[in-house]
From TrEMBL:
<keyword id="KW-0472">Membrane</keyword>
<dbReference type="InterPro" id="IPR051843">
    <property type="entry name" value="CPA1_transporter"/>
</dbReference>
<feature type="transmembrane region" description="Helical">
    <location>
        <begin position="285"/>
        <end position="303"/>
    </location>
</feature>
<keyword id="KW-1133">Transmembrane helix</keyword>
<feature type="transmembrane region" description="Helical">
    <location>
        <begin position="245"/>
        <end position="273"/>
    </location>
</feature>
<feature type="transmembrane region" description="Helical">
    <location>
        <begin position="338"/>
        <end position="358"/>
    </location>
</feature>
<keyword id="KW-1003">Cell membrane</keyword>
<dbReference type="GO" id="GO:1902600">
    <property type="term" value="P:proton transmembrane transport"/>
</dbReference>
<dbReference type="InterPro" id="IPR006153">
    <property type="entry name" value="Cation/H_exchanger_TM"/>
</dbReference>
<keyword id="KW-0915">Sodium</keyword>
<feature type="transmembrane region" description="Helical">
    <location>
        <begin position="63"/>
        <end position="83"/>
    </location>
</feature>
<feature type="transmembrane region" description="Helical">
    <location>
        <begin position="95"/>
        <end position="113"/>
    </location>
</feature>
<feature type="compositionally biased region" description="Basic and acidic residues">
    <location>
        <begin position="29"/>
        <end position="55"/>
    </location>
</feature>
<dbReference type="Pfam" id="PF00999">
    <property type="entry name" value="Na_H_Exchanger"/>
</dbReference>
<feature type="region of interest" description="Disordered">
    <location>
        <begin position="1"/>
        <end position="59"/>
    </location>
</feature>
<protein>
    <submittedName>
        <fullName>Sodium/hydrogen exchanger 9B1</fullName>
    </submittedName>
</protein>
<feature type="transmembrane region" description="Helical">
    <location>
        <begin position="212"/>
        <end position="233"/>
    </location>
</feature>
Length: 513
């Protein structure tokens, strides 16, 4: 019997291991190489069809997206026709509404596509406004586009509601507490001084009564967050002005500025279209304010706790509740005669509810932002469609531009003075003063309201209301693109740049509206 020596056996095992190890390593290297090769081939095979699809017969990419969106818009028209019939045919209200909506969407997209090198992008709302203006003043289109005053008023008030909800949710208590007095000065001072200066200038140049002058002043006195907020966020991402909190200041103050303008406008509107004395009108306005604040606090406290945090789809339920309550408050207040109560109720409700939602408020804001994306084309398209070139007087545009320019000059100068005691240097004060001029959303909502009320209850006041509408249109047309260009070009040149990653500037929950 053959017996192997243990020592030799141990040597043989070592030889076997030493001889097999290179083979194993070689095999593993081969396997890794083959796996790498297979991965590369797989990626190549995945990218190859994609490159082939670019030139394939069914279009891909941007062309496919355009055709798909066109098909969706056409099917919306088909479904609407199935329900309403002749209303979506020419001369019907729904047909006019769809034409305004489609035109405004296309106008906004075209302005997004048009990019000039080294020049900031113009706000899409300008394209929407011009699209509505074109629909109204092109002979063939204007003959077949008709929108009832009731439908137009309801849609504009709904858009106003969404703006107010976004303003209420966008108020950050921590930012307001940190900025304190300078934020209040910036949000209230320029708006009030422009309202007063507009009243004086319109009284002298346009022969406006004083109550109409102040109404016009609060229409044009509001700054537009739709222009200011995106521009400030862009500068903040690059680190411009973040050390002194300039973007934070302008974003937080824009919502408060709108609140002041809308409250003042509603007060002046009730005075203009009321037959009572000034004292009774002021008391009724105070009553509306009190009712709106109280109802807003009650509903806001309700939405803080209902629905509870243990429920599913919490953000969707909260967004639906707050939107439905606010739309009912705004539209319902007009039906019962409390015109100023609905807007204040919306602001207080959304602010009180949002203070307890913490980080979850951002999800609600995104849902409401989606609703705004639908109503924004309608709002600016309808405002553009309200302005008719044939109904304008020969010297109306010149006088309106002069009134707007003088009031704006007073606003810019006063804003510079207000910022002189806030710790900013000369260049920063110039930037803040010029950045505080863009107008868009509030003017689009408030401008047609006086004309709408005049057509219903006081036809003899239509000339004044048409002038208010014209100045609101010109304010958007002139200040929105110029304001966006000034912020985008002047900001990097005059503001100090710091690393945004090292700066602890918080803008939790602030969204565009």
């Amino acid at each position: 019997m053959y017996i192997t020596d243990p020592k030799n056996e141990h040597l043989e095992d070592k030889n076997i291991q030493s001889s097999t190890t290179p083979q194993i390593l070689k095999a593993s290297d081969t396997n890794e190489h083959e796996e790498t090769k297979e991965t590369v081939l797989a990626k190549t095979e995945e990218t190859k069809p994609q490159m082939e699809k670019k030139g394939s017969c069914p279009p891909q990419g941007t062309l496919n997206k355009a055709i798909t969106n066109g098909a969706i818009l056409f099917m919306i028209w088909c479904v609407t026709w199935s329900f309403s019939g002749p209303e979506v045919l020419p001369d019907g209200s729904l047909f006019g509404l769809l034409i305004i909506f489609y035109g405004a969407v296309i106008g906004g997209k075209l302005l997004e596509i048009i990019r000039i090198p080294s020049v900031p992008q113009l706000p899409p709302l300008l394209g929407m406004l011009l699209a509505g203006f074109t629909v109204r003043n092109v002979p063939f289109l204007s003959d077949h586009v008709y929108i009832s005053n009731t439908m137009s008023s309801t849609l504009r008030n709904t858009a106003l509601t969404i703006i107010l909800v976004q303003a209420g949710l966008g108020l950050d208590p921590q930012a307001l507490k940190h900025l304190k007095g300078v934020c209040l000065r910036l949000s209230m001072g320029p708006c009030l001084i422009e309202a007063c200066s507009t009243a004086v200038v319109s009284h002298l140049l346009m022969n406006f009564p004083w109550q109409w002058g102040f109404l016009l002043g609060f229409v044009v006195g509001a700054v537009s967050p739709a222009v200011v907020v995106p521009s400030m966020l862009h500068l903040q991402e690059k680190g411009y002005g973040v050390e002194k909190g300039i973007p934070t200041l302008l974003i937080a103050a824009s919502s408060l500025d709108d609140i002041v303008a809308i409250t003042g406008f509603n007060t002046c509107l009730s005075i203009v279209f009321s037959s009572g004395g000034v004292l009774s009108n002021l008391l009724s306005a105070f009553r509306d304010v009190l009712v709106g604040v109280l109802v807003g606090i009650v509903l806001g406290m309700f939405t803080r706790y209902f629905p509870s945090r243990d429920q599913g789809k919490l953000a969707v339920k909260r967004a639906f509740l707050i939107l439905s309550m606010c739309v009912s408050a705004v539209l319902g207040s007009h039906r019962i005669g409390l015109h100023a109560a609905g807007g204040l109720c919306t602001l207080v409700l959304s602010f009180v509810a949002g203070t307890s939602w913490s980080k979850e408020k951002i999800r609600v804001q995104k849902i409401i932002g989606t609703a705004w994306n639908i109503f924004q084309p309608l709002l600016f398209g309808l405002v553009g469609a309200e302005v008719s070139v044939t109904s304008l007087k020969s010297n109306a545009i010149g006088i309106c531009v002069a009134t707007l320019s003088l009031a704006l000059l007073v606003r810019i100068s006063f804003t510079f003075v207000l910022m002189s005691f806030a710790g900013f240097n000369f260049k920063e004060k110039i930037f803040i003063a010029l950045s505080w001029m863009p107008k868009a959303t509030v003017q689009a909502v408030l401008g047609p309201l006086a004309l709408e009320r005049a057509k219903i209850s006081a036809p003899h006041l239509e000339p004044y209301s048409k002038d208010v509408m014209t100045i609101a249109f010109l304010a958007i047309l002139i200040t929105a693109p110029n304001g966006a260009l000034i912020i985008g070009i002047l900001g990097p040149k005059v503001l100090t740049r710091h690393d945004p990653n090292k700066m602890k500037v918080e803008l939790a929950g602030l969204e565009l509206h």
